[in-house]
Every structure is written in C-alpha cells, then in structure tokens.
Specification:
Length: about 325
C-alpha cells in the first residue's frame, strides 16, 4: 500500500525525520521556496500534517489540503492550529502532553533562579576578568521563602508549584477555579490580585483566544518594580508592549522569557535590557523529552492510519 502523504511544517531532530520518512511520504513545507505554489500542487494528496507547537497549521494551509484527516502536533500547545477549520471538516488533532511537563517546569524554575541570582552576569564577571580586576560580584536577591504566583494550574503549573515547595516558597495560584488537590497553595482568582502578592509570577496556562493578554498592563503594574515575570507558556498570554514599557521604565523588576511575539525574530528592544533573561523557546528542549514527543507524534499518526484510538487527541 502507498505510504500516506504527510506535510511536515517545520524541521524535527534527525532521529524523528528518519522515523517519519520510514512510514510516510513526507513533504517538507519549510523548505519550499514558493509556499503557495507548493501547497497548491501537493495539497490534494496530503492526508496528514506533522507540525510543531509554535508553528501549528492555519486555515489557509488546512483549506489547501481538501483530503486532510489529521494534524499531529509536536508540542502540548495547539493554539497555533485553527481548530475551527478542523472542526468544520472533522479533522483530528493530537498533541504531546505529559511527556514534556517536568522539563518545562524545570526550565521555568531554573529561569527564576538564574534571573534572581544574576547567574549570566556572574559567569561574565568570571570570564572577563572582572572578578580579578574589580572584586566582588554585586549582591542579588534570594529566591527561597519568597512569594510565588502560578497563573494557570494545569499539568505544567502543578509541576512548577511542586518544585517551588522545595524552595519553601509561599505559593498562590489562579486557574479557572480552585483545584481540590492544590494542597498548601492559596487560590486567588483575579490575576491582578495574584500578581500583587507575588515576587515571582509564572505564566503556565494554555494559550487560547480567551487568555490573550491575560497578563496585561494592570497585572504587570501589580507585580511591580520588585516583581519578576516568568513566561514558559505562549507570548500571546502577555501584552508584550506593556511588558517592554514596564521593563524599560522600571515599573517591573524583571522578566525571564522563553517565548516571544514573532519568535524567533524577537523585538530588538529586549536586547537592550539588562533586567531580562532570554531563552530561545527551549523549555521542552531536552533530548529525552524531544524523543518522547517525536514518538508520540508518530504514535498518533500510526493509530489514525490503522483505525486505532488516538493516544492523545485534542479533537
Ligand atoms: C514546541 C511547545 O513545540 O509544547 C509546546 O507547546 O511550544 C514546544 O514544546 C517545541 O519547541 C518544538 O517546536
């Protein structure tokens, strides 16, 4: 039987490319010079799309594949997939939850520590001879025992909170409602109130049109000149213009960010700030987790094309 035709939206690690190519007739969208012409020609043959969390699949792309059956997302976030377009044609959508939770939480907590203790600057202080020539590195702020807010207590938010308990932090959270199993965590529904009582505010909620700019000017002002915002979710959850203004004016103490509007081409204003820690969307970026994500992408495709239940369906 002919291999099903798959449209691959962005690159994967080599081990995933090889495994995908073994079972599918894979066409690399990201390498096409004229993407419109490429889709116009290939579209009718495409039965599946393999994409990444931040790349998704938009309506135009979905509409140019009239025989599309499934979109398999390498990532837990599926906000970049046009779900309405998928529902209209009963196109299945899958993601890769759970396997990345602990790595994403690890990076969020590492970003808090790195930012608060000035570890990047301290590394430079050693390398550029400042330690020998200028003396002691400037003192930084402690993390343990301080107040943390977790905006969005889903799988990743829970994993962050679990880790923060180990730093004896005073933890509160905001979510769609109070969670029965959030022992020891205070529920504060209003993001502004949550930010006001937080030294560190973690943004861990799944992005959707409803959460767009949930971290707005008011939330940022409530976090204040001593507060630090840590975003390991999606850029769309934060009003980036308001964030930049607050970071530039000192209205916000600092930010540690793994996600950006228009990434990977981020706003150059971030580069001029010394109160930010910038990461290139790597929260799930370990070999172990990425291998598990790639496997799950293929498991979902394999299940679909053999008529089995999907392991991790979104739609
Ligand atoms: C990316 C992510 O998919 O899980 C998500 O939603 O954004 C990430 O894991 C990853 O960077 C691969 O592109």
């Amino acid at each position: 039987m002919a291999k099903p035709c798959i449209l691959q939206i962005g690159p994967y690690p080599q081990w995933d490319e090889e495994a995908l190519n073994a079972f599918y007739d894979v066409h690399r969208y990201f390498e096409a010079q004229d993407k419109g012409a490429f889709l116009h020609k290939l579209g009718p043959a495409v039965r599946g799309i393999a994409t990444r969390g931040e790349l998704g699949a938009n309506r135009a792309m979905i509409e140019s594949c009239p025989n599309l059956e499934i979109i398999s997302v390498y990532g837990v976030g599926f906000d970049a997939v046009d779900l309405a377009a998928c529902r209209e044609r009963s196109i299945r959508v899958t993601n890769t939850p759970d396997v990345l939770t602990n790595d994403v939480a690890d990076l969020g907590v590492a970003m808090m520590l790195c930012h608060s203790r000035g570890m990047i600057g301290a590394d430079t202080w050693v390398r550029d001879g400042s330690w020998a020539n200028k003396g002691l590195y400037p003192l930084k702020s402690r993390v343990w025992g301080r107040r943390a807010g977790v905006l969005g207590l889903g799988r990743i938010g829970f994993a962050v909170a679990r880790r923060l308990k180990g730093f004896d932090m005073d933890i509160a959270y905001s979510s769609v409602g109070p969670k029965a199993d959030a022992t020891g965590l205070e529920f504060i529904a209003d993001p502004v109130a949550l930010a006001r009582r937080s030294d560190f505010l973690f943004v861990t909620l799944a992005a959707s049109p409803a959460t767009r700019h949930i971290v707005n000017r008011e939330v940022i002002a409530a976090l204040g000149p001593q507060g630090v915002l840590i975003n390991i979710s999606r850029a769309s959850n934060v009003d980036e213009e308001a964030l930049l203004e607050a970071l530039e004016s000192g209205g916000l103490g600092g930010a540690a960010l793994d996600v950006f509007e228009g990434e990977p081409k981020i706003n150059p204003r971030f580069m001029k700030l010394d109160n930010v820690l910038l990461q290139p969307h790597v929260a799930s970026g370990t070999v172990e987790t990425r291998k598990a994500m790639g496997q799950l992408v293929r498991d979902n495709l394999a299940a679909h094309f053999s008529g089995q239940p999907l392991p991790t369906p979104v739609l």
